[in-house]
Structures are given as C-alpha cells and as structure tokens.
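Much of what follows relies on a compact textual record of a protein's fold. The record below shows the convention in full:
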Amino acid sequence: MWFWLLVMSFCCVHGTTIDDSLQYNQLDIRKETKPTACGANHTCDCHQTKKTFYLVDCSLRALSVIPTLPHNATEINISRNRLTGIPPGTFQWTVNLTSIIFTRNQMKAIPNGIFSSVNNLENVAFSTNKIVSIPVDLLESKINLQKVDFSRNYIKEIPTGFLSSALNIKSIDFSSNKISHIPSDLFENKTNLQTLFFGDNYITNLDSRIFDGNPSLISFDFRKNRLEEIAERLFSSTPSIERVDLSRNFIKEIPKEFFAKTPHLKHVSFERNKLSEIPDGLFRNTKALKNMDLHENELTDLQCGIFIELSNIENINLSKNRIRTLCPTIFSSFTNVKQ
C-alpha cells in the first residue's frame, strides 16, 4: 500500500501558488460605456466609470514613452510595452489613481518621489522588468496600499523602511529577484498581510520574529532560496497560515515545534531539501493538512505514528528519499488519499 503513496504526485502545492485574483497582468475593466481613445495621439483606451473617472488601458501598444494621461484616471495599465523609464512629473496630476500596472516593460530604475502626488494607491505592479533597485520613499505615505508586485526583476536589496506606511497591505511579491536579505521591519505591523511571495531569490536567513505582527498571513512562498535553517517559532504568531512552501532550499532539519501553532495549515512543501528525519510530533497540530511534499530529501526512516493525526491528507509525496522499510500502519489514518 505504501509504495504508491511514495510516488504520488503533489499537484496542489506545486501548481500555481499565487491566487489569480492577486495577479496584475490585466486591468480590471468594468465597462459602463464603449472605450474611447485617450492619451497623447489617442494611443490608449479609456473606459468610463462613475461618470468622470477612467480606467486607462495602454497595454500592448509598443510604447517607448508614457503618453499624457487623463487627470481623472483611477487605474492605469501600461504593461507589455517598451518603456525604459518614468519621466519626473508623470503622475503629478493623476491624483485619483488607485492602480498602476507596469508589468513586462524594460525599466531599469524608478525615480524618487514618482508617486508623491498619488496618495490613494492600492495596487502597484512592476513585475518582469529590469529593475535593479527601488527608492525607499517610492511608496511613502501610501496607507491604502494593498498589493505590490516587483517579481521577476534584478532587485538585490529591499531598503529598510520600505512599505513602512503600508499598514493595510495584503500581498507582497518579490519573487524571482536577487535578494539575499529581508529587512527586519518589512512586515512590521502589517496585520492584514495575507500572502508573501519571495521564491527564487538568494535569501539565507529568516529572523525568528519576522512574522510576529502578521496574524492574517495565509500563504508563505520562499521556495528556491538558500535557507539552511528555519527558526522553531517562525510561525508562532501566524495562526491563519494555510500554505507553506520551503521547497528547493538547503534545510537539514525541521524544528519539532515548527508547526505547533498552525491549526489551519493545508499545504506544505519541503521538496528538494536535505532533510534526514522528521521529528516525532511535528504534525500533531496540523489536522487540516491536505497536501504534503517531502520528495527528494535524505529521509531514511519515518516513525510509525508520525502521520497519526493527519486524517485529511489527500496527496503526499515521499519519493526519491532513502527509505527502505516503513511501519505497516504508518498510513492508517489516511482515509482521503487520492490515487
């Protein structure tokens, strides 16, 4: 019975981990009228909402310069163009902006104070550019900010104090950059923070108290970094956590109390690490767990009652380890496993 469990696929953790609702690839066009041409040389489409406010779509226009934007724009999508920079004063008069999307351009730098006149920002996306650094004051005083996406760039450092005003933020994405260190204050007092995406970086350490102010955290993705150790109390203040992805690191040991305060945990992955054992009692408080990936580690043995509390498991992957024999009853609690 146990053999097919060892090679079972783990689709739920290594499928798309980012909720589609948190993506910024497309502007949310709530059309009340047919779009009208707007911007310099009528290069963009304006979708009118609430009489005088506009959702401005300038995506896929092969633009190398940002066109003049309507002063009453609330959301702007300038993705998939050829922009290399943002001229000073670009957003000086668009004070009603709540969403700005710059994904898939060729920008290398973001000017200081470029959003200083835009105080109602909620969503900012600069993913898939060539950005190397970000100004510490880029999003200063943006108290309504909810989502930021700087994924797939070349950012090496997040400045101390960045996002210090964004106390209502829900989603932060810095995946696929060159970050080696996370400032200790980055998540401080972010009580509404729900999703973190920092996979595919060079992070070597996480402070044990870095998530102490994040009781609403649901999804944690730090896959493909350079972590060797993880603090036992890392999730002691995140009772809402449901998804933990620490795959493709260099972790040798999981502390016994690592999941002691994660009753809602559903998906966990330690795929491709260097684990040699799973401590007894690790999963005793994770009765909601559905998907587990421990494949491609250095496990040689599993204690007989290690999974005794996991009656909701649907998928488990233990393949490519060094396990030769298993206790006959080790999977006896798995009544919902999918073949």
User: Anything to note?
Assistant: Residues 1-21+183-339 form a domain with the Leucine-rich repeat, LRR (right-handed beta-alpha superhelix) fold (CATH 3.80.10.10). The first strand starts at residue 36 and ends at 38.
